[in-house]
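Board notes, transcribed. Complex of a protein with flavin-adenine dinucleotide.
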Amino acid sequence: MPGRRRVRDPIDRRCAIRILIVGGGCAGMSTALHLQRGLRERLRRGEAQLTLVEPQAYLTYHPLLAEVAAGSIDPRHVVVPLRRELTECRVLTARITRIEHASRRAWADAAGQGEPPAPVELDYDVLVLAPGSVSRTSAVPGLAEHGRGFSTVGEAVGLRNHVLEQLDLASATRDPALRQAALTFVFVGAGYAGVGALAELEDMARYAVRGHHNVSPDDLRWVLVEATDRILAEESPDLAAHTLTQLRERNVDVRLRTTLESAAGGVMALSDGSRFAARTLVWTAGIRPNPLLRDTDLPLDTTGRIRCLPTLQVLAPDGRALPGAWAAGDCAAVPDPHADGAPCAPNAQHAFAQAEVLAANLLVALDGGPHAPGIVAYRPEVPTCSTSLGLGRAVAHTRSGGRLTGRRAWWLHRARHLRRLPSGERRVRVLMDWALAGLFSREVVSLGRPEQPEPADDRPT
Ligand SMILES: Cc1cc2nc3c(=O)[nH]c(=O)nc-3n(C[C@H](O)[C@H](O)[C@H](O)COP(=O)(O)OP(=O)(O)OC[C@H]3O[C@@H](n4cnc5c(N)ncnc54)[C@H](O)[C@@H]3O)c2cc1C
């Protein structure tokens, strides 16, 4: 990295096996937890070293973000502090910028906000890649000014406050055009993020307008725009079709095979020719592999994911396992036997399950080498998909292949995610949030933008 002062990590060269995990999300943190357990004695004796590099000090559990936006869960409870759970692991709050696996080196920039990056060079023996994916962006006119994302806790809280503010605005204004724009909510992209956020917020807004004397649920307009011919591409076609029916029954205007052409001036222009004003535009139009993967010397498939064997080892050009390189989660193209060997869908279920197999295989490989007989292929269970669509509403597949809707599906959905949350303490907190939400009426007050308080009124009294 020319022109910048490099700092070599001083502890790196002291121990026998140095494992570097890139990314502290579902796959990365979960792998670290399994390895921490499996290597506990070696870690304590200094014979092994586990380093996890992640720009945030916490894991964000994305599947529950929509419930944060709806106010059913406290925002702090869907994040898991890495240092609290990974007590035997060195957690580096930084972003990996480049990896040269041939020389077993990676470069990281410490994540100080507003400060110049502090580069660190890390040597390793074994690499576990799990930096996930990033949102797909687009050069749609007006999107940068009017669009908002939905993949972080901050964005979920911000969107909640914004939607509630629009209800207040619509109730207070005497301008019919402004009122209509305030009550029109557009979501572009019908994957997990778009469908989950829209369904939960629609449900919340329907409840919140009860407190407004002049706004009724029928005044709210929810539009879901999707470029392909189906929603929830990450889920089974059957569950996706059923979710679509449920949304349409709730008067959500779902437009398939449609794209957003422009949002200039807050006017939504869709490819089907319709144009309307909306003050809420949420961009959840898909994901793409993390761009970091292009700054490595590891093999990528045509979509930009790391090519992997079913054992979660990175695939070498000779068709065998590349020594010392592993990957899991959204970034990894791992063959899915349930999909005729096509790569596993990018979802949390695969990320957690792959992490468990990866860690077990890595422990075998540490002693027996990359082709040791104990290394097994990742064989995912039959997918058990579910999507929450608001309080008491969901659609879910059972393990036996049956389909549930309504309250039973909702309980199943909650139980599954509670089980997957990688922290016992967080599970209890989320359970308490749900219990409290069941005891009292819903919290539907907008806090505005707490990080940007209103300027003080300094007029003389
Ligand atoms: C809003 C939303 C809702 C979702 N809902 C569902 C759902 O209901 N069910 C479901 O199964 N899936 C859902 N998903 C998808 C699911 O969250 C992902 O598939 C899963 O998180 C993938 O795990 P991962 O570990 O690969 O990536 P992530 O969990 O995203 O973790 C990747 C981590 O890598 C870090 N990172 C990125 N770049 C770098 C770098 N250069 N250096 C170091 N670290 C880096 C990131 O900060 C992040 O913490 C949802 C996703 C979103 C955004």
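The pocket of flavin-adenine dinucleotide is lined by residues 22-28, 53-56, 62-63, 65, 95-96, 130-132, 150-151, 192-193, 196, 290, 292, 329-331, 346-349, 351 (CB under 6 Å). The first helix runs from residue 26 to 38.
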